[in-house]
């Protein structure tokens, strides 16, 4: 059975002076996941926030499933602080050189779900051997680092390849897309096999966020 479509609003597009209010606004729109973008100024040329912010969101009452996207050169050094701060899923990039398999196992040992992420320039084959070790595969549909970029339509064939492996091998991981997602590009990704949709700019700028979330949940 394929997973039903699920929206993960990206807090990167929220108000950084009032992150807790932005997180709660996403929950009030009827969403259960919250995407948290963590940047180190090395793996990507930007900064965002750290584990203290996740802990503060929890203290402020955010109850969502924290979908934590580590854009870090050395993610293995930081999985424990993020797990302790309230992450439910921790996704790590395949591109930097570290023990990917051991880090995924470490994430699960901390009680979190584990995800693997591919940049637009990274082929699907780079993660093929890890498909049995993950709860989620995240296909970046922009070069990571900044919100508000244009969707990369050339990523659709990568989604189709990973969906084919998932189907043929009877695997259950979620297939997530991140970057340039709106109602139209989400539907294109859905058709290519994606089931989990990160949306920053289009969600926070939507005139009716509840209707936006309902539209994602209703995609076929
Ligand atoms: C990009 C981040 C995304 C970002 C998406 O580096 O990984 O999660 O928030 O933003 P939008 O939806 O505006 O493209
Ligand atoms: Zn992200």
Characteristic key phrases:
220 residues, alpha/beta, TIM Barrel, 8-stranded parallel sheet, 8 helices, 8 strands, globular, binds D-xylitol-5-phosphate, binds zinc ion
Secondary structure topology:
Blueprint: E1 6-9, H1 19-28, E2 33-39, H2 51-59, E3 65-71, H3 79-85, E4 89-93, H4 100-109, E5 113-118, E6 136-140, H5 156-169, E7 174-178, H6 183-191, E8 196-199, H7 201-204, H8 209-217
Parallel strand pairs: 1-8, 2-3, 3-4, 4-5, 5-6, 6-7, 7-8
Helix pairs in contact: 2-3
This protein binds D-xylitol-5-phosphate (DX5) and zinc ion.
Would you give an account of this structure?
The protein is of the alpha/beta class and 220 residues long. It has a single domain (6-217), classed as TIM Barrel (Alpha-Beta Barrel), CATH 3.20.20.70. Helices cover 33% and strands 20% of the residues. The protein has helices spanning 19-28, 51-59, 79-85, 100-109, 156-169, 183-191, 201-204, 209-217, and strands at residues 6-9, 33-39, 65-71, 89-93, 113-118, 136-140, 174-178, 196-199. The chain has an eight-stranded parallel β-sheet with strand order 1-8-7-6-5-4-3-2. Helix 3 links the parallel strand 3 and strand 4 (89-93). The chain binds D-xylitol-5-phosphate and zinc ion (ZN).
The helix/strand class is alpha/beta
Strand content: 15-25%
Biggest sheet statistics = 8 strands, parallel
Can you tell me the overall shape? globular
What share of the residues lie within helices? 25-40%
End-to-end distance, in Å?
Answer: 13 Å
Arithmetic mean of pLDDT: 98
């Amino acid at each position: 059975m394929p997973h039903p479509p699920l929206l993960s609003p990206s807090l990167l597009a929220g108000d950084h002076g009032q992150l807790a209010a932005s997180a709660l606004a996403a929950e009030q729109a009827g969403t259960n996941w919250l995407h948290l973008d963590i940047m180190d100024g090395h793996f990507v040329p930007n900064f965002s926030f750290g584990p203290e912010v996740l802990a503060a969101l929890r203290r402020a009452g955010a109850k969502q499933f924290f979908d934590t996207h580590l854009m870090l050169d050395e993610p293995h050094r930081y999985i424990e602080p993020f797990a302790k701060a309230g992450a439910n899923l921790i996704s790590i990039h395949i591109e930097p050189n570290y023990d990917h398999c051991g880090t995924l196992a470490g994430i699960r040992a901390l009680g979190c779900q584990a995800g693997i992420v591919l940049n637009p320039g990274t082929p699907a084959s780079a993660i093929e051997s890890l498909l049995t070790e993950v709860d989620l595969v995240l296909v970046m549909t922009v070069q990571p680092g900044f919100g508000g970029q244009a969707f990369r339509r050339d990523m659709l064939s990568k989604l189709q390849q990973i969906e084919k492996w998932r189907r043929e091998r009877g695997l259950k991981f979620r297939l997530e897309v991140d970057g340039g997602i709106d109602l139209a590009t989400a539907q294109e990704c859905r058709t290519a096999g994606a089931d989990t949709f990160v949306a920053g700019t289009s969600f926070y700028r939507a005139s009716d966020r509840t209707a936006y979330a309902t539209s994602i949940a209703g995609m076929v």
